[in-house]
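Hi U.,

Before I forget, here's the chain from the pilot set. I'm dumping it here mostly so it's searchable later in email.
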Amino acid sequence: MLSFLLRSAIIGTATAAVLLFAFPNLRSSITTEQLQTNQAPQQISNQISFNYAVRRAAPAVVNIYSRKYNNEDRLRLDTEGLGSGVIISDKGYIITNYHVVADADQVIVALQDGRLFNSQLIGKDKRTDLAVLQIKDTNLPVIPLNPNYQADIGDVVLAIGNPYNLGQTTTFGIISATGRAALSSDGTQGLIQTDAAINRGNSGGALVNTRGELVGINTASFQQATELETYGISFAIPYALADKIMRRLIADGQVIRGYIGIDGRDINPAMARLMNADNINGILVLGVAPNSPAEKAGIITQDIITSIDGKSVINRQNVTDIVTELRPETEVDVDVIRKGKAKTIKVTIAEDPSN
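Structure:
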């Protein structure tokens, strides 16, 4: 009986050895299962977290309280507005939304470390819904900046602000779209759309990536703008635009935009064929404002504008971008095609009357 059991054990061991030699994947699976069992507690401690990004960015996101003088008691200031802001430099410049501070007689800035400041309004721009404040102190936290970052659909982002004055709050989502113009006052400003929750009080706060770098300035939710019951549709002003507006507000106290006074339409391939303008990029002029720089220079409807100041025209948004960057009183060359013939027209830029 004993010899039978020993013989069975030897045969079983030999069979197992042959199987492991013939099928090495069996050995790796056993090893993997053992490692997974041994590493289970470690995996729990290595769960996905955005704590690093929040720790880098959150100290530079401030609470903003807009105060107005009481109509019945002009010596009393009442807090009427609530919002957020982002410290953008160690000189104390803060970017926030125009609508947060537009009607304020006094703007109080509260840092996360408990410091309070009566801020100075440097400038504000209604068209982009941006404003710049300044506080003066040492050792101010500054939001991490990365000018090379390009927002892409699907990027994970965090919205940091002070919703409903609950205290600093971080919400999580992705970038749903870029270049949205639905909520901009002139219909051309490209906004970042995200599903990170942005509520009242978040306006002017930071939208950051998973490295804590500034992606944009939170500005509105679709529900706030349309009064529709919607969820997961919020908007932020891209950092590149906010930075450009901030620099102009610091330099001039306002944003001075160029203006030529045309209304146009993008040229699509079908339209180009009808106009014998194949392989031409530009916009078709549909209207010229009376007494505008364009009218004074001789631009007419049905002209195709192909370049302005040496910069190629691609579409209407491109024209707006080029013209608004030009200083008033600057004379520039505008290249057009009129009835199939190329023509260069000199136009003197004026200041945008809607500023």
